[in-house]
Amino acid sequence: MTRSTESASPDDRSDWGMRFDRIMPFGSSTSSKRARLTPEEPTVIVRGDGCRVVDDQDREFIDFRNSLGPVTLGYRFPAIDQAIRDQLDRGIVFGHPHPIECEVAERFCDLVPGMEQARFLKTGGEAIAAAIRIARAHTGRERIIQVGYNGWLNSLGGGGVVLPGQAGAVAGVPKALSELHHPAGWNDVAGVERILAEHPGEVAAIVVAADYAGIGAGWRFYPALRRLADDHGTLLIFDEIVTGFRIAIGGVTEYFGVHPDLAVFGKGIANGMPISVYAGRRDVMAACGPGGAVISSTFGGETLSLAAARAAMEVYVEQEVVGYLWREGERFWGQVDRLLADQGVPITIKGYSPCPAFVAAEDAPAGVLDRFFRAAYRHGVSLYTISYVNFSHRPADLDEARDRLARAAADVAAELAGTPVVEGARS
């Protein structure tokens, strides 16, 4: 029996998939989580443990999606789960701040270079929105230059990134607002400089999220942005939602040694609990203090997420998590990159090992990434365009995943050669 590599029809999706499609636009509250490659790809995940997840059909996958990035330590990581349970016995949210809110802000500013004050929200998109509002209030200017994907709340400039890796029109955004947001490309110093020259004295901030495949260009790009921001009286905001607590505890700020005026962190800080941080220089953060821009959320100081963040930060420090992500990530992704090359599959893995990107060759057949991801699911490995090794991926797990992906690559090589892939026992 052969298995088609074409997209599955709606009838191939599980009952959950059809139920989601009926009740939710896009079939999920998170656009990137909707399954596209069924029946191989799981439509829903019902539980996770360490580096593995299980779907509603009791299929287990070695997982490198990690909830699209937040699960940096592993599912059900004992220290984090225990911190949440301990705080649950004391209460979740109150009508006044809980001491943990102050303690986590202090610890965060201790760990991230250049951060003097911090506040909390729930998602990266709203944290970036807060930082942009602070920048506008601090500078008295309105225009924003945006590099990369900065969350759905700030997919505002026409032609900018509206979802990770997807540029397009900005539906639902008033033209007057869209015209104040100027997309620029990663490592395009001249493009940023041109926008600043076209709108002298009008740009409040340059907001930049790294391009993960080309992140090494940060050695040139970040210092250049710092110089341009200083020359034009513009603030520099780093979107560290993915890079923070991953390529370094202090993200690109620490790794490249360039200090922004404001930064936002999220995915790496609490091992999956919903929390984001917007932080920066004291004088800049003053713009959201009394009499300034109002940024306020009832759930900003919710204690379960803060307890998880406090515990996660200590695990990072005490167990050298970032070093492990680099070492094992470099070993594993290097092996996967080589096996793809050995099989003649036109896909490479680019970027830094804690957050690498799968990239199809320029002359690759259309849909080759989907072919490989579908084959990976068939062999029990869950991947995404940006995939992550987490702290619970032990060397034995990674070796098992490598062997499974070798079989997936062999399947794709056979498909590209026109040889039917025989469906056998799931590895």
Distance between the termini: 17 Å
Q: From the 3D structure, determine the CATH topology of the largest domain.
A: Aspartate Aminotransferase, domain 2
- Shape by Cα distribution: globular
- On the 0 to 100 scale, the average pLDDT is 91
Share of β-strand residues: 5-15%
Instruction: Please tell me how large the radius of gyration is.
Output: 22 Å
Can you list the strand order of the major beta sheet? 4-12-11-10-9-5-8
SS elements, strand count? 15
The CATH architecture of the largest domain would be 3-Layer(aba) Sandwich
Alpha plus pi helix count? 13
Oligomer: single chain
The major beta sheet can be summarized as: 7 strands, mixed
CATH class of the largest domain: Alpha Beta
Secondary-structure element pattern, one letter each? HEEEHHEHEEEHEHEHEHEEHHHEEHEH
Cofactor: pyridoxal 5'-phosphate
Keywords: Isomerase, Pyridoxal phosphate
EC number: 5.4.3.8
Family: Belongs to the class-III pyridoxal-phosphate-dependent aminotransferase family.
